[in-house]
Structure formats: C-alpha cells, structure tokens
Amino acid sequence: MKHKLVLILFAVVLLASVNLVTAQVGVGETSDICQRAKLDAQADVSKMLWFGAGCLFGILGLGAAYIIEPSPPATRLLGKPPEYVAVYTDCYRDEGKRVQTKNALVGCLIGEAAVLIIYAIAFAGAVSY
C-alpha cells in the first residue's frame, strides 16, 4: 500500500512538472521563437565572409562552413527561460550553418569557374603561338 502511494505521488509530480514546462513554452510560441532565431541568424551571419572563404579556399572553405556552428549573442538570451534558450540556440545554429554553407558553396562554384576560365584563356593563348 505504501509503495502504491509513493508511485501515485511520483506520477502526479511528474505530470505537474511536464505541464509547467509546456505552459512556459507552448507549441505556437516555440515556432515563434524558432522563426525569430532564423531571422536573427540570417541577419548576423556574414554572407560575404563565407562567400570569400568558398571562393578562395574552395572545398576547404565549404567544409569549414559546414563544420563551424555560429552561436547567438549572449545578450539575446539574458533573462530568458532555459526552454527558450534551448529552442532559440538550436534554430539559430541550424539556420546559421545553412546560410554559411549556401554562401560558401556559391563562392566555391564561382571560384572554380573563374579558375577554369583562366586556364582556358591561358591554354588558348599558349596554343595560338
């Protein structure tokens, strides 16, 4: 009898804590937090930096863009509940990595195309002599 009472009490406490957490950050609010984090990441990540890394370093710049995860500024997370911080940080990092990789890929492709054009011009000049 005593074990059943403890088990029931544990279940009540567990359900109450789950309800408390979901009440702090609801499903609709989670998507709002994620959307805000994505917009912030798009504004914060340096597109020209990653384009230049892809253009100058080719596949190494693209690899760096894929591996390095940007972190949100700590000032945006001050005073926020842990659930907010977790959702915001995850969405920010995912979107930041996507923006970095996209710009590095474009830079890599343009850089490689420029190298091919330079080689083609040099080869055409060498053949004409």
Low-confidence runs of at least 5 consecutive residues: 18-23
Task: Provide the succession of SSEs.
Answer: HHHHH
Main sheet makeup: none
Total beta strand runs: 0
- Helix segment tally: 5
Oligomer: single chain
- Number of domains as seen in the coordinates: 1
What is the overall shape? elongated
Gyration radius (Cα, Å) is: 25 Å
Residue share in β-strands: under 5%
Mean pLDDT: 86
Helix content: over 70%
- What is the CA-CA span between the terminal residues? 101 Å
Report the structural category.
mainly alpha
Description:
This protein is an all-alpha fold and 129 residues long. The chain has one domain.
Gist of the model:
With about 130 residues, this protein is an all-alpha fold.
Detail the topology: elements first, then pairings.
Elements: H1 2-24, H2 27-44, H3 47-57, H4 59-67, H5 82-128
Helix pairs in contact: 2-5, 3-4, 3-5, 4-5
For the structure shown, list the relevant keywords:
mainly alpha; 129 residues
